[in-house]
Structures are given as C-alpha cells and as structure tokens.
Design brief:
This protein is an alpha/beta fold. It is 33% helix and 11% strand. It has 12 helices and 9 strands. Strands 7-6-5-4-3-8-9 form a 7-stranded parallel β-sheet. A two-stranded antiparallel sheet has the order 1-2. The longest helix has 13 residues. The chain is globular and about 55 Å long. The relative contact order is 0.23. The chain binds cytidine-5'-triphosphate. Cytidine-5'-triphosphate binds next to α11.
Length: 319
C-alpha cells in the first residue's frame, strides 16, 4: 500500500529565507488538483492514534472544577487556578460532537491573502476556521467573512487590543467578540504562562455582556499529541503553529481541507514582497532562535500533502 510521505528527509530543513519562496513553487489555484480521498482517510486514521479532535478540541465541564490547579504545558513549573468564570465557560459537550463537513477552509494569516480575491471562495466552504481573531470586515474580498471557529492566543489581547488599557480597546474587543455570532472561540488557555490575566479578561467580557460565542479550551494533551504525530512523520517541529494545529484537528471532521493564507516567506512566487500578516505590521520573526515555531518546515510538509492531494493549498489568486 502507498506510504504517506510527509517529509522525505529525516533532518530539519535548513532555512534560507532569501529564496525559500522559489523552492516552494505551487501551481496557480486554477491548475489541476485532485482530492485524494484514500490518503485523507488514511491520515485521519493515523492522527486518531495520537489525538481525537472531538475530545481534544476542549476540556469539558465534568473534568475540571473551580480551584483546580493546572501546570502550563510549556512551562511545567508555572501553574494557574481554574477560575469560576473559566469553569462557567467550559462546554458541557464537545462543540464538534458528531460533526462532519464536506469541505473546510483553514485561513492562515499571511499577507499572501492580500489582493487574492479569495473571500468568496473561502465563504463557500461548509466550515471555516480562522486564526487569532484576525479581522475580516475590512478584508472581506480577500479573506471572506464566514467564521465557524476562530482561535485566540492570549497574546492577541496584547498585540491587537492593547491589553485593554482603556474603554476604547475594551469596546473594540467586545465588538469583535459580538461579531462572532455563535461561532466557536478556541482559546489555548493552558499552553504557556503569561496569558492568565488576558484569558480572564476575555472570559469576563463574554459572561458580563452575554456574548454569543461557544468557548472551547484545548485539552492538556493536545499539543504534545499533535507534535507527536508530526514527529512520527519526520516533521521536526518545535511547537506546532495555530495553523498546523487546526489542520491536524480538521482532518477528523472535514472531508476535504483547503488552506489559504499559509505562506511564511517574505517574497511571493513572483518575488514580490509579502506581509507577515495581512492585517498588521508585524515582521517576520519565525527564524529567530527565540521563536518557538518552525513555519517553513511546517509549510514544506503541507506542500507535500498538497501535492499528494490530501489538502489543497492556495497561495495565489482565486479564480
Ligand atoms: N501563517 C503562515 N504564514 C504567515 C503567517 C501565518 O503560514 N506569514 C499561518 C501559520 O500556520 C499560523 C497561522 O497562519 O499559525 C495563523 O497566523 P498567526 O496568527 O501569526 O499564528 P500563530 O502560530 O498563532 O503565531 P503566534 O504564535 O506568533 O501567535
């Protein structure tokens, strides 16, 4: 039977940012790409040996109680207490229970989305996943509007909402949360220390203003399980990015998976500059020693899966 070859080499890729985009030439969106159903099912089965998205997408109410002490996944010496608010917002059942979708979009935050005109196509998918509360309204033509699940690293509150220093920023965040309108808000609250207050502020806003979102807080085992799966497939990631986490989870409940906005390179395929994020002025920092991510390595793995028909990457314009 055919092997899933995700990464041909057994050693981490050496990253040369200057011409990385040339090496990653992907055919235009319109070029022939065929979904490989057999391979997708095989990948789902393999990933299920490491994690189950239905369960690991969130800790459930029955499993924790207020006052419980949790050790952060990446900072085992630091702990947090489960607050009453966090407890109140834990789902009773998995937000993905028995869910299956024909096609899903995962929208990464690369500037490659700008002028892509992909908004309409993204919105046609049955389930649309977005990352880190990235804005949509002002960019709808390129990124679409539909949002069924959106992630929120605690650091987003600092980066995009000025740590809620005044009423204006609190209102901005509140508006963004209201606009989610019933979708899933996925908050990695137990990953790394430093985000406790930010998670608490968001929880408080949601409860106080009765914001219509379905909160989810990923399980304590998710990160290691995802890393384990990719390591087993010779993808030597340090800490999976949000985008890779979402793809790994999506294999469980999506038949076909379409990725947009995944392009961790400063130049596009035609050597034009690409912003790191489509919506802010953050610079490329992922290759620094301090960064926990290995995005170009992840990209290489995703590109290989694209070539085998297990997922579809769009890195240019949509038709
Ligand atoms: N992404 C990408 N290329 C970029 C920027 C982002 O491929 N130039 C993808 C990555 O998979 C990333 C996802 O889009 O995880 C969402 O982007 P971002 O919000 O920057 O992701 P995080 O991984 O959460 O980054 P950080 O840990 O710095 O918050």
């Amino acid at each position: 039977r055919a092997e899933v070859v995700i990464n041909g080499s057994s050693s981490p890729a050496v990253v040369d940012r200057s011409n990385e985009s040339i090496k990653h030439n992907i055919q235009p969106a319109s070029a022939k790409w065929r979904h490989n159903q057999t391979l997708s099912l095989r990948i789902r089965k393999q990933i299920l040996k490491f994690l189950d998205a239905e369960k690991d997408i969130s800790v459930l109410k029955g499993t924790l109680k207020p006052g419980d002490i949790i050790h952060y996944i990446f900072d085992r010496d630091s702990t947090m207490n489960v607050s009453q608010n966090l407890y109140d917002l834990l789902p009773r059942t998995s937000p993905l229970k028995n869910k299956h979708f024909g096609t899903c979009a995962i929208v990464g935050n690369s500037g490659v989305l700008l002028n892509s005109g992909c908004g309409q196509e993204i919105d046609t998918h049955s389930f649309v996943i977005r990352c880190n509360l990235a804005p949509v309204q002002e960019y709808a033509r390129d990124v679409g509007l539909k949002t069924d699940l959106v992630t929120m690293n605690p650091s987003v509150i600092q980066r995009a909402f000025e740590d809620l220093v005044n009423a204006t920023w609190r209102e901005k965040l509140l508006q963004r949360l209201h606009s989610l309108n019933g979708s899933i808000l996925w908050i990695p609250a137990f990953m790394a220390r430093g985000g406790k207050e930010r998670v608490e502020w968001v929880n408080e806003l949601i409860l106080k203003h009765r914001v219509n979102v379905r909160t989810a807080y990923p399980s304590l085992r998710l990160l290691h399980a995802v890393r384990g799966y990719w390591l087993t497939n010779k993808v030597h990631i340090k800490r999976p990015t949000t985008g890779l986490l979402m793809y790994t989870l999506a294999t469980r409940f999506c038949n076909q998976i379409y990725l947009y906005g995944f392009w961790p390179f400063p130049l596009d395929q035609n050597q034009n500059p690409v912003k790191y994020h489509y919506y802010d002025s953050l610079k490329y920092g992922y290759t620094s020693q301090a960064s926990p991510h290995t995005m170009p390595l992840e990209f290489k793995a995703l590109k290989s899966l694209h070539e085998q028909g297990a997922l579809k990457l769009t890195v240019g314009q949509c038709d």
